[in-house]
Amino acid sequence: MTADPAAATRPRNRKQLIIEAxxxxxxxxxxHMASMEKIAAGVGITAAALYRHFPNKYALFAECxxxxxxxxxAAVDEVPSGAPSxxxxxxxxRVTVAHRASGGVYRWxxxxxxxxDRRQLRAKFRHVIGRVDExxxxxxxxxxxxxxxxxxxxxxxxxxxxxxxxxxxxxxELLVESALRVAAADPAAHRPGARTVEVVAHPVPRTRRAxxxxxxxxxFARDGFASVTxxxxxxxxxxxxxxxxxxxxxxxxxLAAACLQAAGLLAQEVDxxxxxxxxxHDAIGALAATYVAYSFEYTALNSVAEAELVGLPADLxxxxxxxxxxxxxxxxxxxxxxxxxxxxxxxxxxxxAGFGVAVEAGRGxxxxxxxxxxxxxxxxxxxxxxx
Length: 387
Description:
The chain has helices spanning 5-9, 14-29, 36-43, 47-51, 57-77, 85-98, 105-109, 115-139, 147-157, 168-184, 208-223, 230-236, 251-273, 280-297, 299-307, 314-338, 344-364, 371-385. By secondary structure, the protein is mostly helical. The longest helix has 25 residues, at 115-139. The radius of gyration is 22 Å and the shape is globular.
């Protein structure tokens, strides 16, 4: 029998290489924008060869989700019981940073898993959170309902959501330090000089265009942009699907309008928050309180702007990316003034860690709004930044 020359040169770990490449592409492009052809090209094989390993895109996506969760479970389980929180958080951080390019699948894309796969994934993450919480509570017991553990993991996981170039070792050090400060914070403690921030409440839609946008945002947030139809949006505002085109040229334009609204609202709130601040430390407190208040007030809008930006065409995405960079630059400037030992890259990583804390702590509280919850999340964000 003649040996298959292709089989002779086929790497033994091809399936692993496929999963790694797929994780990067899912993380960068989102589930619906990723294709089996792009994933195959990332491994240097044909789509037909890819289908020999996975029957469809969903099966590959679910495998990617499982792999990272399994890595985190293995990392915390290798830490001896009773070990200090620094050891547990360091283990999680090393895995997360090492697989930074593919880790972004979880924050937004996991909603595309079916019910059973999502249930299993959540069970694995609960195990990781439980191990972190055990260590945190042993060192500083507080009745916080695992909030500090969730927030600390949010600081670590933030590295998967941006592209700041930084050495792996330094990234690990920064994130572990940030997560430890979050774990040591008391979410219920009153912070001297803490600000009460009221953001602009949801405006009442006064035009049909505004009504369409207001109806589309919660649908996009719940089901994902690609899964929502024009018919669903039209039904939510009592229109025929064809009537949408009098106000928007297509569904993508509705998404672009949502992202622009998010960027405009956040920029407006940031400008107001920095009026009459007495110094960089006060400015950081104002920025943190404002970002948390905005996140609670506009939860659906914020999640759409963060999760669906990759689905926009390049010409529509470009101004939104620039707006994001300008927002981060404001934080970076104030943080470096308050903490001059940080270089620009280190400050940027910590700013994103603060955002990660706000998102995961808010989720942990199921975005149930109220002054106590806003204050608790703000305190954790400040901890992530080093205050």
